[in-house]
Design a protein that fits this description.
With 125 residues, this protein is an alpha+beta fold. It contains two helices and six strands, in the order E-E-E-H-E-E-E-H. Strands 2-3-1-4-5-6 form a six-stranded antiparallel sheet, sandwiched between helices.
Length: 125
């Protein structure tokens, strides 16, 4: 089963990877103080679909593409078995049958400065 998730275009230093993915939807969200990204005017959120057999490849690629000046971002995508959470230079893959693994995902995100409310792990079904 293919993976679906959201990529914030402004999180990437080079957004060319988006041309390689199937974009299902795009939303533009104006920045507020809660976003903790005052250097941006908006977030462009692309809902993407990634073929199951290419999920690890794109995780590796995306983990190297985050904005180097502001690396405290993540991308996540999941299917019915696994959930990839991708940080700059770090990829975590959660088996959905083992949801306690989300503790590490959240702790790592907090450790690099991502606000707690932006780390909805484990996700609500």
């Amino acid at each position: 089963m293919n993976y679906q998730g959201v990529i914030i275009e402004e999180s990437l230093q080079n957004a060319n990877v988006l041309k390689e993915l199937k974009i299902l939807d795009t939303k533009i969200e104006p920045i507020t103080s809660a976003h903790k990204t005052p250097w941006l005017k908006q977030w462009t959120l692309h809902t993407v679909e990634i073929p199951e057999d290419e999920a690890q490849f794109f995780a590796n690629e995306i983990s190297q593409l985050f904005d180097k000046e502001h690396p405290d971002w993540y991308v996540d995508y999941k299917n019915d078995k696994y959930h990839f959470i991708i940080y700059a230079d770090k990829i975590l893959k959660v088996d959905l049958q083992n949801p306690e693994s989300y503790n590490d995902v959240k702790l790592y995100g907090l450790s690099i400065g991502i606000p707690d409310y932006q780390l909805p792990f484990p996700p609500q079904s």
